[in-house]
Amino acid sequence: MGRPPCCDKASVKKGPWTPEEDAKLLAYTSNHGTGNWTSVPQRAGLKRCGKSCRLRYTNYLRPNLKHENFTQEEEDLIVTLHAMLGSRWSLIVNQLPGRTDNDVKNYWNTKLSKKLRQRGIDPITHRPITELMESIGTLAIRPPHTAAGASSSSYLPMNPADQAPAFHDDVPYHTALQQQQVITLLDPDAPGVAASPDHQLKWSDFLADDAAALEAATPQAVLGQYPEAAVAGGGARAYGDIDSTAADVGGGGEDSAGSAFIDAMLDSDKEMGVDQLIADLLADPAYYYGGGSSSTSGMGWGC
DNA sequence: AAATCGGGCAACCGCGCGCAG
DNA sequence: CCTGCGCGCGGTTGCCCGATT
């Protein structure tokens, strides 16, 4: 049953590619295309895993790749899109012809995130670091929620990967809806986006670590108790899994509950003018930094 | 001149999803 | 329907090389 293994991992070569290997791979792909990577190493005469071949090709050998430094415009676009999408490099790279996700990811990790920090902006949340510190202070004195079995931490969803403080009562960006809109604009074919006109956020995500509360609480009750959860959840999800569509909400009788939650999210975003904000951001990358803080207006990344 | 440090980047790793068998 | 691989993706690692001590 199933397919045979793609390669014998014990015998495949690892490490840097040699010019000879590059030449073989390039010759093969130019003659036969790039279908079925698992068979490429054997057909091209390479002792590599197909996965390694695909990576080498897409990140280095692929035609039309740019190998020169990032331009100012590209930097601005990366920063803006990262603010909207988080580290979804595949989506970001769709707007940067000739660049690879690995390129952009490395450039972000080594250059852009440092530039942001130097300017006092948290590269994860894209908010002034001073504001984050204030938020943390506010959180520390926030009274615990004990009703409905909700733990004090359960309404502050955090992406374990980045551990970003995802709570702020006036967050104008990073709501899941906002991010979803951007993804839809950038990639109409994105799975789970266009197919779900009434995109449903999984409200139970906000209580995912509290099974008792999950069973007991209705979405309305949850929102009533934790009005900040809608915003906080959006903030966290800006860097987490936002592909929660049909697969996430399809079963378990969550449909009506989900709809109520969505309505709350929609209302919240509408109040904040998120729709217009997205349109402005996409029309003018400088808008994001020029909107409120003169110190960060027109970042001038290249200087 | 040698040793150490740190930045940059290529490549690998592990996971989730879709689908072939 | 179930299993497990192919593929794509994001995160991480490790090597190389230039700068610094």
TrEMBL record:
Protein name, entry field: Uncharacterized protein
